[in-house]
Design a protein that fits this description.
Radius of gyration: 17 Å
Helix content: over 70%
Number of strands: 0
Number of domains: 1
Length: about 140
Amino acid sequence: MRILKAALIYFLIVFGAGFALAFVRLPFLVPHFGVRIAELLEMPVMLAVIVWASQRLVRRNPGLGRLARLLSGLLALSLLVGAELLVAYSLEARSPGEYIASRDPVSGGVYLLSLVFFALAPALWNGRSRHNNSFKSNPLRGSA
């Protein structure tokens, strides 16, 4: 159950960020730069969100081992891909095959690599958080 909850929160954070960024990318970036450049400009922001959200998953679930965190990432990936295909079908009436075929080859390839990173990221971080321990023990920072 903890794996499912961690995966769901991880998915919601990253999907929500991507959904919000679409409101910048589509009306402002795509008309000026085209789809490829707009998606590539968005990618560093999404990678930062993935890093932050995956590290948050690790901090908030200290009892999850590396394998459980990997399972959380894989489950979150399946939720993310499912949600993206559902949005593509709902908003653009595209089948999964049509949606995948419509992706730009360059930005689509980078996106595919980011999906792999998204799935693996929770398992990449150390389960022990030095930041949390140092924060609690530093009297100048106050109590946690």
